[in-house]
Amino acid sequence: MIHILQFDQIDYSTALELQRSLVELRKGGEMGDVLLLLEHTPVITLGRNAKAEHVLASREQLAARGVEVFECDRGGDVTYHGPGQLVGYPIFDLRGFTTPEGPRKTLGAVGFVRRLEEVLIRTCADFGIAAQRVAGRTGVWTEHSDAKIAAIGVHISRGVTSHGFALNVSTDLEAFQLIVPCGIADKSVTSLGRELGEVPTLEKVAESVARNFGAVFQSQVLWVENLEALLGRRTGVPMKPPAELRRMHGEEENWA
Predict the structure, then answer these.
(1) What is the CATH number of the domain that holds 207?
(2) pTM, whole model, 2 decimals?
(3) In the predicted model, is pLDDT for residue 235 greater than 90?
(4) Sheet with strand 68-71: strands edge to edge
């Protein structure tokens, strides 16, 4: 069972704190697998492999535009998150998923990333956009324009995943000019809205993502209304989060 919890737009630090709390609960077997879906306020994140020169704007320029900057423990280089982008954070215990090699073969880091790509490829297809993988790179690109439409960067500790993916829906694509997206200078960035000529709602995209998670990970999915419904009142989890959230009704492997 994958529980789906969707938030409105929240800042990156709040989401990071929430992920850390949920990861510890998942490691302790105190909750099941959960997928967080949300939007972020404008932020540039630097993964463990990030190069400082891939942030093209100065800190002063970023501050003037209201763009925060965070270093984080996901794999990969530099990326941008902002309004109009559907971000997904799967908090999964990979030991609960098997591969076609046999019932005793559990899902590893590479297989997990490939499944995330498959979810996003199928989601793009739901909206009439043909998307694909690019050999040697992580993420999803459109076949028509050969532009990146979704980025992936994950962290895995003791078999439990965090961080995840970002799918551009109606994102301000000019914001990607502030960085070298994922350290890839020879590919452009696109969105569902640009490819379609019209913008689907984030709710419809989230429904598609949730459905495709169920299909690709061969699990039932259950939408939950809020953190209380997911967890009850657990110690260490911010049950009374800041204003942004109130709007809602070891062993390490890194990939990007």
Answers:
(1) 3.30.930.10
(2) 0.88
(3) no
(4) 68-71, 43-46, 78-81
